[in-house]
Amino acid sequence: MPRIDAFLKLGLAQGCSDVHLAVGVPPMLRMNGDLTPIRFRDLGGPELESYVVEIMNRHHQDQFRAGHDVDFSYVAGDGGRFRVNVFRKDSGVGAVFRSIPGEVPSLESLNLPPIVAKLCDFHQGMILVTGSTGTGKSTTLAAMIDLLNKTRRLNIISLEDPIEFVHRSKQSQVIQRELGTHLPSFAEGVRAAMREDPDVILVGEMRDAATISMAMTAAETGHLVLGTLHTTSAVKTIDRIIDALPIDEREQTKSFLAQSLIAVVTQVLIKKPDGRGRKAICEVMVMTKAIAKLVQTDQTHQITAQLQTGRDLGMQTLDQSMLAAIQAREIDPDDAYGYATDKRAFAKHVVDRSLLPRFDIAD
């Protein structure tokens, strides 16, 4: 059994989301959003490098020794599955192991807004799930793919870096391809997928102009495209896509967004009141004629107002979603305060008054 499995087994037993290993510090566990060291000695450089190289294949070892970061999936001896990132830093090697549940969660078990399931009824266009790293984007997309897999007869091609949740084909056929193992880039993966009779294409990360452009082409030509961006609101997502492409393509990009973007779901994970676990809180934007016009006329800053008044269509801002969850006692108001845009609306719910700026206390 690889030696690193002992740390991973401990992490799973503690219910952590991530195991962090780095030279010069003891192993650390991410528990409900907080990083906590375990009782162990500081890890040495040669020791840690031997741990991580032991679980790499030859391709990943060559990449790592050439000075590159390495992403791959790993199944521990006890069956636990992890997404792994190995890197080098000033003091030596570092690695992060993200725990992947053995079963794909349902949208219901994630307590996501009902509109997320309804989005899976679309047959073409683009749906984006966004948020910063570690906010559950991959989990939400996996649950959406699972719903499609169980309820429709489709050819679903999932491009991932690396493969996380493993989907068994049910009503649909699910083909999972991994960056670096099965395809050289997401853009090339989308290009190839379009020749493989797809109904649905999942793009694990739309990280560059080439990938965004190919994903847009797929959505325009009759496919349902699901993808992610590291953006923290619907407005920032639209602005990022427009800014990512060349200036001479921006009018075409705005036209695409107005006509083919179905929705943007932006997530954060906020601690529950008892501190045991976190809940996904979502901002939801559904493309309407009014929002489409704002996109085409460079008035994206007014989209937030449309979200605030679009509840009948399933839309909501992050602030609206958090306030509702606070009132239902589903999340910690102190943790939510840090994510709020209009912090004054949350101030009265904050328990730890030291979090409030002086002007809020004075008011």
Care to describe what's here?
The protein is α/β, with parallel strands linked by helices and 363 residues long. The protein has helices at 5-14, 45-53, 58-65, 114-119, 137-151, 186-193, 209-220, 234-244, 250-260, 289-296, 303-308, 318-327, 333-339, 344-347, 358-362; strands at residues 18-22, 28-31, 34-37, 70-75, 81-89, 92-100, 125-130, 155-160, 173-178, 200-203, 224-229, 261-271, 278-286. Strands 9-8-10-11-7-12-13 form a seven-stranded mixed beta sheet, with helices on both faces. The protein has a six-stranded antiparallel beta sheet with strand order 3-2-1-6-5-4, covered by helices on one side. Helix 6 packs parallel to helix 7 and helix 9 (250-260) packs antiparallel against helix 10. The radius of gyration is 21 Å and the shape is globular. The termini are far apart.
Class derived from helix and strand content: alpha/beta
Overall shape = globular
| Tally of strands | 13
- Sheet of most strands: 7 strands, mixed
How helix-rich are the residues, as a percent range? 25-40%
Low-confidence stretches: 359-363
Q: What is the chains' assembly state?
A: single chain
Average the pLDDT over all residues and give the rounded result: 94
Radius of gyration: 21 Å
Please tally the helical runs, counting DSSP H or I stretches of 4 or more residues.
Answer: 15
Sheet-strand content, in percent, reads: 15-25%
- Give the termini distance in whole angstroms: 60 Å
Secondary-structure element series: HEEEHHEEEHEHEEHEHEHHEEHHHHHH
As laid out across the biggest beta sheet, the strand order is 9-8-10-11-7-12-13
